[in-house]
Amino acid sequence: MADPFAILLIHFKGDTAQPFQRSWYEELFSEKGKGQMLLYDWFLDVSHGRADLTGTKVFGWYELDLKMADYTGSGASPAARQAQQDFLALCKQKARDEGVALDDYRGVVVVLNTGRDLFGGPAGAVGGDDGQDLDVSGLSPAFMEQEMTHVFGLDHSKRADMPDVEYGDWWDAMSNLTPYLTPSPTRTNRSVRGDAVYPIGPGLNAANMLALGWFDETRLWKQSGERFSETVVLRPLHRLDLGGWLAAQLDDLVVEFRVPDRWDAGIPGPAVLVHYFEGKSSWQVADGSGRLGWGVGSSLRPADAPGDAGGVEFGYGDITVTAIDPVGLTATVQLDRSPAKVPQYFPEWWPTRKRWIEAGVVEIGSFFGTGVEIGVGLGVGVGGDGGVLFTTAGDETVLHSPNFEIPKVGLRVDAARLAVDLQQDFEI
What does pTM read for this prediction? Predict the structure, then answer.
């Protein structure tokens, strides 16, 4: 099904300049630009054909009863954000007054004859270009990729190890101004500094594609069962024309392969990428040595991961890149999963007399640094004695040695609920 946009050509009061012919805008946004590596092609490629802008139409020019000097939307303050939404609503109302049936379209893009602002969200996107080629255009495909995808519901993509960085994933279009943009092969204008005015790319990562329902899941490798060891050969994420898996999913982690070609021509080389999706954002995960672009030998599980101790086998999920073939366009990854095991007995040393109980969170058994939950642990104190409560996947409970040191790697559990489990299982 098509997802057409209404493109509204808008100018502020008294500024009637029209920098480009209508056909220029039609080719940028609609199927009239098919084959030119512009927005129509980008959305088709990064959605496995599911985001189709066919039917997108350009309307206007329309003049607002608002001078540019009176517009206060630029910036990140709450007042500026509200002014942006008010401006977008004003533009949409102007189009409706001119007879445009906006409800017939998946989204709206307001196109200005100036680079006054650039933003996007569920209500629509805004960008502009005065045609002077002084800097990167607010209507560059790279910028519009992100702003229009905001309309579909995504937020900026981020890094798991730097959660406060707003544009953290340089391989993804939802991290605007990534250094991995590439010049357009068809709109080759250069700024006064020599920069590409209309850069394109990069692509959209697999976690974002899955969140939007844009991934062809017949091409997604998925785990079967709790324990497995599989070798998976991946093809470049957006190459539907090549046979094989385009991504692999291990629990909440999605593994993909990217190569420096087409939308990704600006990335530094072939790389395996790992993400998970949380909230409205994808989160990029580094390998055990901190590399974001995984190469041969990269693994999620660092060398100092906890092993088995005291009768407890820690569960793990392991992702290792074993080969990358830049000519054959393949990446080979080893995916292993072993669930946690705990002894199903109560040690003789554990007290059964009635005592008070304290419970506090102990963080165990996650994929390192990602918050993806694998097992559950809770530090428990009963009187002056201490122990550790483990729960298995079947929600069974067992107490183990008080002398065992639990590694802390990022997992939250409900201490109160597990404390109740203790009271049911023991005379305390």
Answer: 0.79
